[in-house]
Amino acid sequence: QSVLTQPPSASGTPGQRVTISCSGSSSNIGSNTVNWYQQLPGTAPKLLIYSNNKRPSGVPDRFSGSKSGTSASLAISGLQSEDEADYYCAAWDDSLNGGVFGGGTKLTVL
Amino acid sequence: EVQLVDSGGGLVQPGGSLRLSCAASGFTFSNYAMSWVRQAPGKGLEWVSAISDSGVGTYYADSVKGRFTISRDNSKNTLSLQMNSLRAEDTAIYYCAKSGVVVITLDYWGRGTLLTVSS
């Protein structure tokens, strides 16, 4: 059971907008910033969003993040086939004094 | 170009020990915290441990506390993870990762090294 809760799966058709939620608590998302990672099949994870809503250089602006209270969301607009991957949210947890990940969401592009 | 090359994985018997290493290049290693993250076969990501830029601060997941020790050698740009009392549930790909603005912002990752704990 992950400390951060994500839906196990999500799907959309090319061109659609998809959102993935991440629910936490006051000790993690409620008091710290959220990061999102993308993991393509057979590869290492890649930082997609940091500090709730910032994109590292090279990440398309189709990807956006938001946070409200103890929840966060990742939105992908203009869905493309290459977006098919696993997506993870992560945050620092002050109570655990460590990092925590969500269980991951497998995104399927239909 | 930032590069992280993790190594040291292999097959170990339950109760055994192993040391993972991560060779870093392309950035000022001593300026950044570093972490280990693992992924069991077919499962999600699990944060394992982190160490501050100086090495003074260390942090562990409850699942490995007391068994794993993270360390770094800033003179050799190397991160290590000493793993003792290994269990079957420690079987995973272990990734080393560089921290960015905060510890859990992992902006660069190694390719991972596979640890299998089995008799």
Structure description:
- The complex is a heterodimer of chains A (110) and B (119).
- With 110 residues, chain A is mainly beta.
- In chain A, a hairpin with a 2-residue loop joins strand 5 (63-68) and strand 6.
- Chain A has strands at residues 9-12, 18-23, 34-39, 46-49, 63-68, 71-76, 85-93, 98-101, 105-109.
- With 119 residues, chain B is mainly β.
- Chain B is built from no helices and eleven strands.
- In chain B, the strands form two sheets. In chain B, strands 2, 4, 5, 6, 9, 10 and 11 form a seven-stranded mixed beta sheet that branches. In chain B, strands 1-3-8-7 form a four-stranded antiparallel beta sheet, with no helix packed on it.
- The interface between A and B is medium-sized, with 27 and 25 residues.
- End-to-end Cα distance of chain B: 40 Å
- Helix amount of chain A, in percent? under 10%
Distance between the termini of chain A: 28 Å
Instruction: Please give the radius of gyration of chain B in angstroms.
Output: 13 Å
Question: Mean pLDDT score of chain B, rounded?
Answer: 97
Largest sheet of chain A: 6 strands, mixed
Shape, principal axes of CA atoms of chain A: globular
Strand content of chain A: over 45%
Helix/strand/pairing category of chain A: mainly beta
Low-pLDDT parts of chain B are none
DSSP helix count of chain A? Answer: 0
Poorly predicted ranges of chain A: none
Beta strands of chain A, count: 9
What's the arrangement of secondary structure elements?
The complex is a heterodimer of chains A (110) and B (119).
Chain A: E1 9-12, E2 18-23, E3 34-39, E4 46-49, E5 63-68, E6 71-76, E7 85-93, E8 98-101, E9 105-109
Parallel strand pairs in A: 1-9
Antiparallel strand pairs in A: 2-6, 3-4, 3-7, 5-6, 7-8, 7-9
Chain B: E1 3-7, E2 10-12, E3 18-25, E4 34-39, E5 45-51, E6 58-60, E7 68-73, E8 78-83, E9 92-99, E10 106-109, E11 113-117
Parallel strand pairs in B: 2-11
Antiparallel strand pairs in B: 1-3, 3-8, 4-5, 4-9, 5-6, 7-8, 9-10, 9-11
